[in-house]
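Mods, move this if it's the wrong board.
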Amino acid sequence: MEKRDPIILVAGPDDGGKRLDRVARVLLGSVPLSAVFRGLRTGDIRLNGRRARNDARLVPGDEIRVSGRFAGSVRAASDGDAAAGAHATELPPVLARTRDLVFVSKPRGMLSHGAGGLDELAAALVGPLPEVSLAFRPAPLHRLDRNTTGVVAISASIAGARAFSEALRGGRIVKRYLALVEGRIEGREDWSAYLTRDSCSRTTLVREPSDHSGLAAETFAEPLASSGGLTLARVSIGTGFTHQIRAHAAFAGHPLAGDLKYGGKPFPGGYVLHAWELEFPEDSGCEAPASVRAPLPADARARLVARFGEAALAAFLL
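Not the wrong board. Structure tokens:
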């Protein structure tokens, strides 16, 4: 661990009420948790010049002093500038930006979380932050599967993260997808069913409800065009279970074309599942647009146009 001169960091307005140890863990991202606790005990991490308990609550304006032993590991909000340079050629396109949220179009093959994923690129996508919090770091607020494309929201402020997450949990954010499925769908279908996750096969399965099941995962499909045993469907979901659309579609007898993991037959280029639109309530609690849409990726667009024609996809070829 590189030793440097001590660093003094000032708690911002959004840090009020947060525990000192939790803020220190974020600031010293590369330092093991045990070392952070040890630093608080030994005084290498001090609050307003004094040793403080792990659970001490911060007040805006408090000074956190990090000794030279840990100073080289401090992550500042400006780290996003360096990240932007490092990942400039890898960043997905930004669809919309407000002071609280940034919306990007995730490409096929990119993870939402993990090595090279959106979580690592979030700071670069958001850019410089106002100095309102020591502990806040931009991050994706929901997930898309590796090969699912489309809109992902990234937090640009604590207010944005809280408001988006609360609206998502409350089912107040509408999520619409385009999916290419096997078979012919004649009209709107309700694919809602209880789901469970199989950690061994890393798949999502439909299960029987029990006395403690709660609410079923909600998925609704509406046909847009059909040709050659395939249907292009507009799919909306009211919940956000892992692989929800893929599992529900397979259970309904309409697996995604090319989704071999869920019983789909091979399809050139792999399955098409595109998070086309996010729609927000007017009283979302943060600065957010009424809706955000992501254009279809060029390869998916070409494959769908070849099968269904330009007119069938006109509303989605942004």
